[in-house]
């Protein structure tokens, strides 16, 4: 097995079916991650209920190990337990915390990010704007964030380079910018990732 087979694109996780212990229930709507420890924290799961629509949080610690190879993600819960999981609004990512009253916002997690929202943010290096976040690579063995894929349209049109999440210095939500400690010269030397 080659070492990269366990890497999953956050974009590809969206819409994957959720398999509980007793059958399928819904699909992945988003992945929330922690930008301090670079771990995937929750899957946001649309339970498939149409009226009213219900999205719940499934901690990534409850995802079964191993890849089922059938386009689904297995969780160690029953369908009923998935349905009764906390509402997605109980842990809002930074991009939605402005919706909260001031006191609740002050208690919110300043490191919880939505992979869907962060994709598309500009990436600024020390001396350049390098491109934008094209995707986030997740290690499905331990649900850590392995890398960010940056579309470097100035140097490698149509391709992305892989950067370590640990090179991120901060993420500015209002400006939609990921600031990284990488120079223009280093960006040019980074390994390209074919689509």
* Biggest β-sheet description: 8 strands, mixed
CATH architecture of the largest domain: Roll
Mean pLDDT across all amino acids: 87
The run of helices and strands is EHEEEEEHHEHEEEEEEHE
Low-pLDDT parts are: none
State the helical fraction: 10-25%
Evaluate the radius of gyration.
Answer: 17 Å
Structural class: mainly beta
What's the structural blueprint in terms of helices and strands?
Elements: E1 7-9, H1 10-13, E2 17-20, E3 23-34, E4 39-50, E5 53-59, E6 72-74, H2 79-83, H3 102-107, E7 112-114, H4 115-118, E8 122-124, E9 129-139, E10 144-151, E11 160-163, E12 168-172, E13 177-180, H5 184-189, E14 192-193
Parallel strand pairs: 2-6, 8-13
Antiparallel strand pairs: 1-9, 2-3, 3-4, 3-7, 4-5, 8-9, 9-10, 10-11, 11-14, 12-13
Give a concise summary.
By secondary structure, the chain is mainly β. It is built from five helices and 14 strands.
